[in-house]
Amino acid sequence: MKCKKIASLALSAVMAASMLAGCGSSGDSAGGTTNTQTQTESKTEATTTTETSTGDTAAAAEVSHDEEYTVDFYDVAANFQGVQSGWYGKIVKDKFNMNLNIIAPQVSGDGAALYQTRCAAGALGDLIILDNADMQECVESGLIHDLTDVIAQYPNLSRYMEQIKAFNAMLGDGSKIYAIPLEMNTNGPTAYKQLHVYTYPRLGWDMYNEVGAPELKNTDDLLNCLAEIQKAHPQNDKGDPAYAISMWKDWDSQYMENVAQLTKWYGQEVNGSVLIGTDNSIAPLTDKAGAYYKMLKFFYQANQMGLVDPDSATQDWNMMVSKMQDKRVYLYWYSWQYGFWNTPAKGEEGVNYIEIPVADTNLYQPSDTYYGDGRVIAVGSQVSDENFARLMEFLDWYASPEGVQIQHGGTEGLIYTVEDGKYVLTEDGLNRFSAEVAVPEDQGGGNWNDGNNQINQWIVASCDINPDTNEPYGTDMWSSTIKMNETKTTKEWTEKFGAADDVEYLSKNNMMTVVPSINIALAIDTTDISLIRKQCGDIIKDASWRMVFAADDADFEKQWDDMTSQLEGLGWADLVAFDTEKYAPMLEARKAAQ
After folding, report:
1. Which single residue of 61, 331, 370, 507 could bond 389 by disulfide (Cβ 3.0 to 4.6 Å)?
2. At 102, which CATH number?
3. What is the pTM of this model?
4. CA atoms within 13 A on the CB side of 157
């Protein structure tokens, strides 16, 4: 059996040009309920029937929940390994009599070895989340269950059949359905409906104003602003050391992930060994004129100024979360980091984090992932017929309004209430990421964050519309939340920058390019390329971290030159040529969508 570790795709999801004609928002919606109180049932039978491709009607298989089922869930997105517990685990257990045993390669110690071992055993998992290219390989290896004859029987999955068929047309001979793209929506392939851009500089509004609210023309100005903030606040209110910048390395893949995210500020996204630009250009990651070098040097300069947390090279993401919750980090760059600090109450105090424009940026912003985000979910080929039916039932629920609402909005009563047909966050709901929210014992007990969905990927994106409310699933996009977040911070920001939010500001000032979100299965690494990629990735990650902490400019430049020389000796040119050809179809599809 062919099983090798191949390149992970850091795509914002791609779709072949031929698939783009006629794409748009679907008006159909699956039925569902927002009631999150579930009871264990001994037996259920799906009553919804749907048209199959031949015109016949079929009902989902009858499913028995009599026996407890522990699902081995191989999940490349997970930051947790073990059995899902807490409130989400209880919902799944009560509804399906299932336990989700999450197998997480990125926290296992050696993800490549884990993948190879499980592939060789013929059972990667009962449920499987993989990057697109890995899924393509596993289909060819016979590890993935064929869904073709049954998927139309599941109404919630069928709502996204256009996207599902489009992706699977690129697997095998294109005639069967094996995998379900993740993070789909029905808003259309070029829409961007988020309230905030994904990655951009974010500072505490109070601290930014405290140092004079300076105009930031470039990253040098940003660093100088951060230096003034850290000088005024070398510790948080508890007396703990605080730093302008704190990083973590457990998300690194073939490069330093913190650097790779910031390349988007300057119009390029890292994909494997290459940088792909908003202008559809492709350049090697090692291009000195490129954004990887630029943003790596940004972190180096920050460290030279004493702005980098010395724990950065050794801490993990969980430690980073704790520091954000304690306000020991002054620069955010992900939009979802807001959840670890921002609240309406803090917004009224003027202490929320918020985007601060840097004038020379041209943000690479992918559109919403209509066709999926570059990862897919599937069922393992080795599962029994009975368990296959149970897993399909779970996946359909996972894509249902109820399942999606629970994923993105939590549970009614504890996290939100319903007022005049609209969802409104409770105080616990507002604080669930930034504070300890206790969950009642009858809902699973423990801390809300600890019990959150550890799958860490979902079939339906938060920007999709909940048919029960006609509002997005994401709590930050609820009309009630938007109103709550109209605080002193946002009002003063709007007055200063003349825009309702960062998306509007960057758009009207030509500081952001939205690139179409596409989703295709790209070329699989050959054995030789896989080896080169692994060796080069190890060199890039190691050298990048060392360069952040270089002694001086000369040391930084020498380490860069040494890195590029080592890469050349390992076949870097061949890898860049492979990736340049690999991503060409993505660029053609993007051009067709623009």
Report:
1. 61
2. 3.40.190.10
3. 0.74
4. 27
